[in-house]
């Protein structure tokens, strides 16, 4: 085979845990940096969460943004954010929520103003209005979703595995979420509902990874009675390495395609997922294993009969 | 050892795949441009209408591709979008305002497929363009009105009985009456006890207070009445817009979702949706002859009105009362259990009603429902022109001097009573609504989104297929087969489930599934390779590979399924779309990647006793 990524010999596994000082340091640095950026730069919350009005219009020629801003300022929309969206001809205008009154009329006001002052036959591509109340609710529901997801997963994984494996799996998820949010905070990319969906998808994906590894760790603890925990983990990681890489690579390739061709509306979504895949792979190889070791896992913790050995109760598979 | 599936297993897998493919088929046939005609305001689509439409289009030289007459709606398929626009314009002129002519896209699914329920994927608003409104009903306003009215009702009642009260006030959802002295308190308790439906009665002798608290049932009824009232109004309005397949739905306790596919002009949509209805009470003109008036001799001081359901009525020009004095209207039953409509007015309205009815007992009084309907034209100032459409919804004889609370009896069936109560509330606009969320996607952006999504799916697909084919050779090809089947199955299942719509995040979900679906096969194939390295025979390696990988794959997918379910539970709109595709993708990919590939591998290699090596 001309490119076999790995074929690890059980007797000579890659010694992943030898660099766990460095990876722990890296994790700490990334998490601390993310938290600092989150508290200093905050997140650039999208319309879904802040409320307000957004209008996306298409001009027939590349739009003159400064002229647009002047027009907006002259018409009491000095607080509007104007930016190109995708192509130079497409412009996004975003207005923060106004107080009382029929704020849902702002979208129409903006449109007629642009038509009157800039170009008559502009094309309306998108109008969004989110009331402040709705925005708050969406943000609340979103945060709740993340929490509930983490808790449900913690319960399921502790039920299927062992609490140390479960806790480290969920801790890894926490790290994934913090680093992705940190990146969004540093780059000031907008966080909207699709990013929330991406975060939840990352949780699912990263967990996928760690379950495959955890499954193998459990299996090897039972099988390789002479090895110490560190080398059991090293062996397990080595055995699953090619699967981890192949899956991460195919998913990453797919996400890059999505980033390039999927259009502006899901660009942020693809970025969040792509980062999630990289970070998720990293955390299931290094962070979780380091944590499991640090919590002092031993063979006794993983022996049956608490959990049936997988495979034994399945004669055939559909 | 050999690897074989029993025949039934192979057949079952084949059957499931064929079933999924069958329901994915309608998506290949695309959609026809069509106009949809339905009746409104007395208009009804009949066989005559069908002939009329055929003849009109024939005269205009617009070829008809197909006609479907179903559920009182006529669907005319035409060849191009240009024909579609022309046909609509001509038909609007020809059929007049009693019919709604809406642009639509009709799936071009062959009859035999449609007969077994096959239909193409439903696209979300972000892919087909349109408006999404979330409206909130102002319940507080409705309750405030009802409370205020109740306070005056109680005050009037006590005054009539000459009982002196310190104060009557609304507090929360209760009316609290404080009496001057113990004696009046006792009498008032007797008078007010169990007098008012929907209120719990409590007294406190120490503080001489009587509390009338709205029951939970009453509150709930008021809430759903307010929602129903607004949904009815919105339905009428949406009909005006001529939208095919609108969605008007209650969401949560006090919200209404309105989705109008294909509508671009939100300003117009909002103006039409927001137009108010009102109500008037007038005396019937009994001094003059109705037939004379219909013949053209309308007497001075009176006017002819259309009656709902046909016929005309002659009413006096003088308006007794308008709808804004109505606080509530609900269905009740009289002594002999016949349905009636109970109406509550505010105190000013009650006084006006008393004054007007005092000398007119025995005279019939009519209720006129007035709607402002868009004409489709604009005024000189560029605003939408509205037609004032008046309709008599009830005529009843005044039996006594009426006050703040009166009833209309002899209204017919319970259904009729409910309709009348609904119209009365609609005209009163007891609970106003407000748009709290709006999302509009233009048609060009929708089309671009579809195109971008397709590109992403195809691009991702090709890359993954290539990689798998190279990396796992023949086994990779089997995985690729499973992957393609998986895509077809996702589309088939999504088309089958009513209510599942494809959105942009949904497409992202499909693309993501393409990436993740190979994971199951990667896990299995890596296991098989390991087993081979450990020196097992190829057949054993296949069997053990699948066995050992199963629980891993199941665990991994179940956790992802958990996140998909949570997303579905808390998400709205397009996020729900993502959750649905993700969940469907996980289930179909488990099936194709485990059972599907195993069946193919068993059939290809499983029966070879002398198999020496695997192409993996």
How would you describe this protein?
The complex is a heterodimer of chains A (318) and B (616). Chain A contains nine helices and six strands. By secondary structure, chain A is α+β, with helices and mostly antiparallel strands. Chain A has two domains: 16-44 and 135-300, Multidrug efflux transporter AcrB transmembrane domain (Multidrug efflux transporter AcrB transmembrane fold); 52-130, Malonyl-CoA ACP transacylase, ACP-binding (Alpha-Beta Plaits, 2-Layer Sandwich), CATH 3.30.70. Chain A has a four-stranded antiparallel beta sheet. In chain A, helix 5 runs antiparallel to helix 6. The relative contact order of chain A is 0.15. Chain B is of the alpha+beta class and 616 residues long. Chain B has four domains: 7-26 and 442-606, Up-down Bundle (Multidrug efflux transporter AcrB transmembrane fold); 31-107, Alpha-Beta Plaits, CATH 3.30.70.260; 140-218, Gyrase A, domain 2; 272-439, 2-Layer Sandwich (Gyrase A, domain 2). Chain B has helices spanning 7-24, 47-60, 81-95, 111-115, 125-128, 139-160, 182-192, 216-241, 266-274, 290-294, 347-358, 414-428, 443-496, 504-533, 538-570, 573-606, and strands spanning 31-39, 64-70, 73-78, 99-107, 122-123, 130-137, 165-171, 174-179, 199-204, 209-214, 247-251, 255-261, 277-284, 302-306, 312-322, 326-333, 339-345, 364-378, 384-397, 405-408, 433-441, 501-502. In chain B, strand 2 and strand 3 (73-78) form a beta hairpin. At the A-B interface, helix 4, strand 5, helix 5, helix 7 and helix 8 of A face helix 9, strand 21, helix 13, helix 14 and helix 15 of B.
